[in-house]
Amino acid sequence: MTPKYRIILASFVVSTFLMIVKFVAYYMTYSSAILTDALESIINVVASGFAFYAIYLASQPKDLNHPYGHGKIEFFSAGLEGVLIVLASIFIIFHAVQNFFNPQPLSDLPLGLGIIISGVIVNWFLGYYIEKEGIKYQSPTLIADGKHLKLDAQSGVILIAAVALVVFTKSAWVDGVASVIFALYMGWSGIKIMRKSIGGLMDETDQETLEKVVQILKNNKKSEWIDIHNLRIQHYGADLHIDCHITLPRYYNLEVVHANVHEFEDILGAEFQGNVEIFIHADPCLDDCCYYCKVQDCPIRKFPVSKNIEWNEVNLSLNQKHFIESI
Question: Which range of residues forms the domain containing residue 316?
Answer without folding.
Answer: 207-326
